[in-house]
Amino acid sequence: MADRLAQVSSHLNFPRGLFDGQTAIITGAGQGIGAEAARLFANEGAKVVVADIDAQKASAVAKSINDAAPGRALAVAGDVMNAAYIDDLVKKAAEFGGGKIHILVNNAGFTWDGVIHKITDKQWDTMLAVHNTAPFKLVRAAAPYFRVKDKEPRVIIQISSTSGIHGNAGQANYALAKAGVVGLTKTIAKEWGPQFGVRANTVAFGYITTRLTAAKEAGGTITTPDGTKVALGIPGRPNPKDVNPEQAYADIPLRRPGSPEEAARSIIAVASPWFSYVNGETISVTGGRNI
Q: Where is the Ketoreductase domain (predicted)?
């Protein structure tokens, strides 16, 4: 009994961080939830690959991490919808990690809203490309580093949304794509869990204060690979400082939206050893909304 307790205790002791000796790729890590997740992973001992379409933002996040912990972050900029970039990202991550990759967070994405009868083929195809095809191709490219039997933890986390669980008016393309993420996650868990012990889970966010949930009038945009500028945000959304929480967030039991850091903490939790027996699940992070 004493030997067993000592063994358990050794597994729960993380003096150098929860992810000491592990390498993580986080896409869309140049800002928002992804950037906060990169910092938190690094703070818990991981070597972090900051992947983002914006080279300047990716480099800034990596620098902020390396200033505090030298050599712990690498920026690899590029478009996840570009197959060549996916291969380059995996190659550089493996080199950075000494030949190993342990954690993959498919976080990159954006919204391109429209009501069903007005959504264009381009809007539709782009949402599926960035939220479904890109994560699939990244998982497939990283397969040699996850389908291994070295007894080290391997975790894949897909970022979804409550739009993918409940649907959302004006977001048929985004809702479908985010629902598809759940199916991909469960399939990874069933295919790679039995032989290789890979855990795959989905984190579905509700109202988190990011550029995707800010007021559309604030002017947030993203430019697609072909040069199309897409406006981000929600039309008519008031400034959070100007609202009565009891009224504006009446459908959220905590009466407020979540912060990017709070969202990132949930990613860290799901990736951590504390969730070692959680696999194939969709974890909603909503402040209690939709319960």
A: 22-195
